[in-house]
Amino acid sequence: MAEISVMALYDQIIDNHGEFLESLRHRFLDGERKSALQKFENIGFPTKKDEEYKYTSIKEITEKNYNFFPKEGHNITKEQLDQLHLGEENFDWIVFVNGKLHKELSKVSIENVEFLSFNYALNDEKHKEVFEKYFNTIASKDTAFTNLNLAYCKYGFFLKVPKNVVIEKPIHIFYISQNQEENTFYNTRNLLIVEEGAKVEVIESHHNFDSTYVLTNSVTEIFTYPNAKADWHKLQNDNNTSYLIDSTFARQEKDSLTTVNTFSFGGKLVRNNLDFIHNGSNINSFMNGITIIGKDQLVDHHTAVHHNFPNCESYQNYKGIFDGNAHGVFNGKVFVNKIAQKTNAYQQNNNVLLSEGATIDTKPQLEIFADDVKCSHGCTVGQLNEDALFYLRARGISQKEAQALLLYAFANDAMQNIDIEPLKEKISKLLAEKLQVDIEF
To answer: What residue stretch is flagged as signal peptide (predicted)?
Structure first.
């Protein structure tokens, strides 16, 4: 029963707990896995009748068959890996192939931290107390995909950065799928704990090397403690037989800073769920995104920030460029609790449609229950400024180059807070490549 239609789980879920879960057996998770499967059965996959998926149909995902247990064999070459790198000689990197951590392909020089593959950490008695304290405590218990992830999660990583430890090198996490003869379903799970005064930067990317379809259902939980800083950059540039459902939950304590940047260029359908929870005062949260897609791609950003304490700030800036029959969705929510006075929340979503077939559904939302706040939100949908195009054309620049330069400038400000130069350069090059323009870096 390695291969099963995801929709067929409805009929088989209860009778086959043991068979499905036997290879996923972990000391304290058995009961939670079964409970998650039961919740999934009760909830069912979302449809366009559900408010949160009103503009995003996942029918093409759920109607396919998937292998839940990928083949481990691979023949990834150094040249293939080099093409995925950002030129980051001074980075650390961790490579998962077909769900398994491969140390021989990774480079890990970080010290004074606790780093383990997720599956190993689950079975390591030393980390039992940590996992029971943090694991699945901030992830949503009410969605189909988070419950499926809890039921099947086996792949991913666990990283705990102790008090006052500063990890100078960014860590790039590669999730690679190769040599899969059938459509494959990965449920990746990441847990990051950044203790008081610590700092870390993570880059995450997914890559499908096959023509078969890959569905990745990823859940990440980030805990940032007082005076700590955690940056997580998502580079989404996979092929057109890849689906990604990414759910990230971040809980911040007082005086902390957490950033999640999401750069979406590839993948057939990408859904990003991002949830920030403030658990103290003087917190700063940053969410930035750039989406450039065409053909029949779909990228959906759903964000939420929960301002529960006073004197906190959140900043959201998402830019979208859509061509062909591409479809974009942005739904950003900001909740301000009645005790969260002096909140400063900014939310902006700007979009450019390059063709008649491209569409964007954008819905910024504020729910404010405090009276001494600065909260703003806005969105724009349009085409390029004709006066600016004329200005560039008058100086001898071709129509195509003028358009690309304006689009590059339009998207560029959403990556200004990236302080990893190789990543910033990579994003700039991807922007130029997607816009088909030569830009000097």
So the answer is: none
